[in-house]
Amino acid sequence: MRLILLGAPGAGKGTQCKRIVEKCGLLHLSSGDILRQQRSDGTELGKKAQDYMDSGRLVPDELIVKMMAVAIAAAPEGGFVLDGFPRTVNQAVELDKSLDSAGLKIDAVLNLIIDDNDVASRMTGRRSCPECGAVYHVANLKPEVEGKCDKCKADLVQRPDDTLEVVQKRLGTYHEQTEPVVGYYKDSGCVYNIDAGQCPDMVTEIIFDKLDSID
Ligand code: AP5
């Protein structure tokens, strides 16, 4: 199965992708995580992406399309779930072209819908594990021990782009450049709108029901 999760910053794409991956055995391909890894490895791509990410702007399409093509080409036959990609109509067109040429297609686009007013508190309260990538929230998804990852016990960290100022910029970027991607996929009949304003377990239940219906 090949899935795309769309949604504003903080809609819960990363949180839900981790659960989908556990249930369906798919590969989780997060463009944001790959970029952060490139940055911490100090690669050319990481250096080029840095200023864009820190200011809440999108990294240029040509860099992202190439990066994700490499990641997708290495994915197992069982499929993958794309998190944070495609994020512009141009990226979606390029993704379609490369899937077409491999005789593949996207089975479902899950569009996580959240009110703009909920985004800031979700983002500024997010804490992540630098070791295993687990995601928590200081109020909504607390770790068992404050500040520590449940799985690997590492100290949780806050992402540098989760400040209120950068979050507002990311939200504007989302409305301007990423929302049109939903329209791009609409004609294909594979878009499922999900109310992501509910608690994480409820959102997971809705997503699993949808996935079972298209299995
Ligand atoms: P990226 O890392 O993709 O960030 P994003 O899309 O802004 O999404 P987030 O990861 O911030 O949010 P999420 O939806 O995954 O929410 P999460 O599950 O963590 O991108 C970062 C940057 O990289 C971009 O700004 C850009 O510069 C660059 N980039 C990446 N991809 C690119 C591309 N394709 N093209 C160009 N540039 C690209 O949840 C958030 C918080 O809310 C957590 O604390 C969680 O515990 C909590 N939460 C989750 N669900 C719920 C719920 N249902 N109820 C209450 N709380 C919840």
Quick overview:
With 215 residues, the chain is an alpha/beta fold. The chain has helices at residues 13-24, 31-41, 44-54, 61-73, 89-101, 116-124, 164-186, 200-214; strands at 2-7, 27-30, 80-83, 108-113, 126-128, 135-137, 191-195. BIS(adenosine)-5'-pentaphosphate is lined by residues 7, 9-15, 31-32, 35, 52-53, 56-59, 64, 84-85, 87, 91, 122, 125-126, 135-137, 140-141, 170, 196, 198-200, 203.
Helix content: 40-55%
The number of distinct helices, counting runs of at least 4 residues, comes to 8
Distinct ligands: BIS(adenosine)-5'-pentaphosphate
Q: What's the β-strand tally? A: 7
Taking all Cα atoms into account, the compactness measure Rg is 16 Å
Task: Name the overall outline.
Answer: globular
* Secondary-structure element pattern, one letter each: EHEHHHEHEHEEHEH
Largest sheet: 5 strands, parallel
Residue-averaged pLDDT: 95
Question: Uncertain runs with pLDDT below 50, 5 residues or more?
Answer: none
Question: What is the strand arrangement across the widest sheet?
Answer: 2-3-1-4-7
Strand content: 5-15%
- How widely separated are the two ends? 8 Å
Helix/strand-derived category reads alpha/beta
Please give a structural write-up.
It is a single chain. Helices cover 50% and strands 14% of the residues. The chain contains 8 helices and 7 strands; from the N terminus they run βαβαααβαβαββαβα. It has helices spanning 13-24, 31-41, 44-54, 61-73, 89-101, 116-124, 164-186, 200-214, and strands at residues 2-7, 27-30, 80-83, 108-113, 126-128, 135-137, 191-195. A 5-stranded parallel β-sheet has the order 2-3-1-4-7, sandwiched between helices. A hairpin with a 6-residue loop joins strand 5 (126-128) and strand 6. Helix 1 packs across helix 8, helix 4 (61-73) packs parallel to helix 5 (89-101) and helix 6 (116-124) crosses helix 7 (164-186). It is globular, with a radius of gyration of 16 Å. The mean pLDDT is 95. The chain binds BIS(adenosine)-5'-pentaphosphate (AP5). BIS(adenosine)-5'-pentaphosphate is lined by residues 7, 9-15, 31-32, 35, 52-53, 56-59, 64, 84-85, 87, 91, 122, 125-126, 135-137, 140-141, 170, 196, 198-200, 203.
